Structure formats: C-alpha cells, structure tokens
TrEMBL record:
It comes from Curvibacter cyanobacteriorum. Residues 282-414 form the GGDEF domain. The keyword Nuclease does not apply. GO terms for molecular function: diguanylate cyclase activity. Signal peptide: none annotated. The chain crosses the membrane at residues 20-39, 148-169. This is diguanylate cyclase.
Length: 414
C-alpha cells in the first residue's frame, strides 16, 4: 500500500508476538515453580505413606521375629517390597539374620529413607530393625503426572487467552487502522467530502482510533475549506487578470489622446473588413477627416489647446458613427479615418457632409474661448479588387483635393 524502505508489520502482529513470547516465558517459569512444588508435595506424601506402611508392618514383623519364623518374615518383607511406593526393604534381625527384597539395589539409593526399631511383642527389647527405601521411579512418575495435569491446564488457558487477545487486537486495532490507512491512501482531492466510516463493535466509550477518525474528518473539512478558499481566490485573481488583459488590449488598440482606435487597428482590421465586404458582396467606404489649420491652433493657443481640440473632435466623431459597425481611428496628427462597412459611396458621402456640418456648427470651448473649427473630408468606396493601400490613397487624394479647394469641404472619389 505504501512505498517504504522498511518492512511493514502491523502493531497488532507485533503486540500478539510479544504477548505470545511473554506468555511462553511466564509458562516456563510457572512450569519450573509448579514442578518444584509438586516434587515437594509428592515427597511429603511419600514420606507420609512410608511412615504409615512402616507403622502398620511393625507388629507383624515383631511377632514373626520373636517367634523366629524366617519364612514369615521374608514373606512380609516381600509383600512390603511389592508395594509401588517401596523401592527396597531390609529387615536386620537381632539374631544377625538379614531379610531383603525390592528392585532397587541397596548401594544405589544411599541411607534408608525410613529406619525403625522393631520391638519385641511385650516391648521389653528390640528384636530387629526395619529399613525402607523409596521407589524413585514411582516418585518421578507421580511428580510428572501431577505436574503434567496442572501444566496442561496452564498451556490450554494461556493458549486460549493468547487467541482471545489476538482476535481482539485484530478486531479493535489492526482492522480499523488498516481501514484508515487504506482510506487515506485512496482518497482523491475531489472526494474530500467522502466520510471515513469504520466498522467497529458498539462501545460506550471513545478510544484513540475514534480520535484519529475525528482528526481525519477535521483534516478533510479543513482541506475542503482551504481548497474552496483557494478556488475562490483563483477565480477572483482570474477575473482581475481577465479585466487587466482586456484593459491592456483596449489600451494597445486605443489612441490615448482621443479614445479612437489607433493606427494598429487600421492595419489589422481594415484588410479583414475589406475581405468580408468582398466575400459577401457588400459595400464598404472610408472617410478621411482632417482638421483645418490645426497648426495655427497649436501655434496660437499652445499644444495643450491643440490636444483638447483633438480630444473633442475625436469624441464628436465617435458619437456620430453607428458603433460597433462603423469605427473611427486616429490616422495620425489631426487626421482621422472613419470606416463604414455596409455603406456605399452615397451613404458615406452623406455621413461626411453631416460630420462636416456638425464640426462647423459646434465651435469648441478651449480654455474659456469659443473656437471656430472646420474640417475637410475625402470619401471613397472600396472597389471590387481594391486593396487597403489603394482605397486609402484614393480617399487621401480626395482629402487633399478638399484642402486644395479651400477646406471645410467634402470631396467624393467618383
Ligand atoms: N497638439 C497636438 N498637435 C499635434 C499632434 N499631432 C500633430 N500635431 C500638430 O498638427 C499640426 C499639423 O499641421 P499641418 O499638417 O500643417 O496641418 P494644418 O495646420 O491643419 O493645415 P491643413 O491641414 O492644411 O489645414 C502640426 O503642427 C503638428 O505638430 C498632437 O497630438 N497634438
């Protein structure tokens, strides 16, 4: 799921391994302790059994030895040796006779575990001595038997406990943690609203996994609002940028003084207009307008006054054309070009006359003075195969003609 240099192992698996190791160590310690205690208890039990056997055997042995009946004594010794707890039996009679029986060699086990005086029946004097050795195999078997029973219980209990703890760790820790990790790894930025839902048994309390889940949900919500803020910011910035681009574009095609289009628009837009008019068989005309004696205004009233005149004439022209079909551009100096798509020579000529009359009829207010103003116009309609340069040259020739004919005139290229 995750790319990492170190090997992955779940917390639950580590905890289960540690619990099993700890349980093993505890089991071993319990085993040793239980073995020791069982050994002690078995020894005590054997001692007690031995003492009982010896006490019970003494009267019979006393009679047999007093009556000097060796066969009976030997039979009794044999019977004692046949008891499972007894490894070896020896009776030393005061007459010097020895009676022995048992599987255990006498020199192996060391001194007798129990050695008792056998008194004569009347109890006046001893008639012999009874020595008993325990059967080590029997004791070991007893220890093993008792220990095994208890240890089997321990092992079963510990194993069961480990299984239970392992199952709970997997259910309560491993599975939810894996679900959280899988959810986090597969979560896409556009899915931040998808809630993290864990399948957990009902509880009356919260735990660390609930805290992680809540933290994750909080993180998702924070990320969502952060992304929403960013989106909003991007949209706002994009809008500002679009406005700026629009403004930059407007400035790049606008003459700063008059607000008309600049020369660049003439170069870019006029050829396209002519092409469109030709393709659809429509008329297109242009008008050159040039303020008369503008140099005199500059010279007499100053350059600022000249600028004001240019601004006012530009505004007047812009106000009179049929925008956005017709458009006005400052050609240079005090000369304007008015482009009239969809207009033939008659309409263009009428428009030029109307403009001329308006300029003449509205003397401009410049620096508190009323300034009479006229302009000359040259009009031309685009011919069937005519290009931009030829069309402008013809209109310009008409303007030149109007100037030479006395100004404040409209000359139309026939
Ligand atoms: N104030 C101002 N003057 C300008 C600007 N551009 C050109 N001019 C001036 O406009 C004047 C044009 O003079 P001319 O070409 O002789 O034209 P005119 O005086 O109008 O004479 P005619 O056109 O023959 O009537 C020049 O003096 C230029 O310096 C401008 O942006 N502002």
């Amino acid at each position: 799921m995750f790319q990492n240099r170190t090997r992955f192992r779940s917390i639950a698996a580590t905890l289960i391994q540690r619990i099993v190791l700890l349980a093993g160590a505890c089991l071993a310690a319990m085993l040793a302790l239980q073995g020791f205690l069982t050994y002690r208890e078995t020894q005590h039990r054997m001692d007690h059994a031995l003492a009982e056997i010896a006490e019970n055997s003494l009267p019979m042995l006393s009679i047999s030895l007093w009556d000097i009946e060796p066969e009976v004594v030997q039979r009794q010794v044999n019977w004692l040796a046949s008891l499972p707890e007894i490894g070896r039996v020896r009776v030393l009679a005061s007459t010097g006779q020895t009676f022995e029986a048992g599987a255990l060699a006498i020199d192996l086990p060391g001194p007798a575990l129990r050695s008792l005086e056998i008194q004569a029946p009347q109890g006046s004097k001893p008639v012999g001595r009874l020595e008993l050795w325990i059967e080590p195999g029997y004791q070991a078997a007893q220890v093993a038997h008792d220990t095994l029973g208890i240890v089997t219980g321990y092992v079963l209990f510990t194993g069961l406990l480990c299984l239970l703890v392992g199952w709970m760790l997997r259910r309560d820790l491993q599975r939810p943690m894996q679900e959280i990790a899988r959810f986090a790894a597969e979560l896409k930025p556009q899915e931040l609203s998808r809630p993290l839902k864990l399948e957990r048994p009902p509880r009356d309390h919260q735990d660390e996994i609930d805290l992680v889940t809540q933290g994750f949900t909080q993180l998702q919500s924070d990320l969502r609002s952060h992304i929403a803020n960013l989106d909003h910011l991007v949209a706002e910035r994009t809008q500002q940028l679009e406005k700026l681009i629009e403004e930059v574009h407007r400035l790049s095609i606008t003459d700063a003084l008059t607000g008309c289009f600049n020369r660049r628009v003439i170069e870019e837009r006029l050829p396209a207009e002519i092409e469109r008019a030709r393709r659809y068989g429509r008329a297109l005309s242009v008008i050159f307008a040039d303020i008369d004696h503008f140099k005199a205004i500059n010279d007499q009233l100053g350059h600022a006054a000249g600028d004001a005149v240019l601004r006012d004439v530009g505004a007047l022209l812009l106000g009179q054309v049929r925008t956005p079909v017709d458009w006005v551009a400052r050609y240079g100096g005090e000369e304007f070009l008015i482009v009239l798509p969809e207009s033939d020579l008659v309409h263009a000529s009428q428009a030029a006359h109307r403009l001329r009359e308006m300029i003449e009829a509205q003397p401009l207010h410049v620096e508190g003075r009323l300034l009479p103003l006229t302009a000359s116009f040259g009009v031309a309609q685009c011919g069937p195969d005519e290009g931009v340069a030829d069309l402008l040259a013809r209109a310009d020739a008409m303007l030149y003609h109007a100037k030479s004919e006395g100004r404040n005139r409209v000359e139309v290229s026939g």
